TrEMBL record:
The name this protein goes by in its record: DNA-binding response regulator
A Pfam cross-reference name: Trans_reg_C
Residues annotated as domain OmpR/PhoB-type: 134-237
Domain (Response regulatory) ranges: 3-117
PTM annotation (4-aspartylphosphate): residues: 52
SMART domains: REC, Trans_reg_C
GO cellular component: cytosol; protein-DNA complex
Species of the source: Simplicispira suum
InterPro entries per record: CheY-like_superfamily, OmpR/PhoB-type_DNA-bd, Sig_transdc_resp-reg_C-effctor, Sig_transdc_resp-reg_receiver, WalR-like, WH-like_DNA-bd_sf
SUPFAM superfamilies: C-terminal effector domain of the bipartite response regulators (SSF46894), CheY-like (SSF52172)
DNA-binding region listed in the record: 134-237
GO biological processes: regulation of DNA-templated transcription
Keywords on record: DNA-binding, Phosphoprotein, Transcription, Transcription regulation
Amino acid sequence: MFTILIVEDDALLLDALTGQLQQQGYGVCTASSVPEASALLQAQAVDGIILDLGLPGADGMDLLVWVRSHIAGLPVLILTARDGVDERVRGLNAGADDYITKPFNMQELQARLQAMLRRARQPAFTHAASAPGGQSISLGPLQLDPASQTAALGGVALELTQREWELLELLVQRCGEVVTREDVLAAWRASPPEPGQAAATLNSNALEVYVHRLRKKLDPSSLAIRNIRGLGYMLAKP
């Protein structure tokens, strides 16, 4: 039986979704905010997420970025009232597997959910997870171990700060794709600060410093972090 986490702050919609999915044989757990959802994901395993973006306190996109940084292969279906093309593109580029706007048809949602879960179980769509026991990720001479949050270049360990590790992991997981500044900052804000670092220092200027430092550490390899003007960064495929 699949277990689905529904992250939705509308109590009536949450109840309706829960009832419908349980009737279809799914196990369901729920959360109404980003902190509640991230705490639940760290406490128990789920097979997929239905995620609203308009959540109180923190945007659902923050949770999506956190999931992609910590549980890379977990399927996520965005269910939101935001129907603009830019929002759809942003959600899909941030790692969502599907995107449905409200109001929606329940049968269509169930069909898309089933298709998403089915794809996630196929070998071609499996990803290394950043949870304890997750598999290592290799990209050219670079190897990442999400379980211990360590990286090596050509067999030589890299000395990385927590922020550098999170930036590198996000770039590697989305190698060949644009990672926006907002995506990186959201991932950083979703994790504990480094010792002596205030949350207020997490801004674009700080990000430029971390990118520069990470570039220098990758210099001996063929891996290059490119600036995509006006958008963010991309780790070029070796």
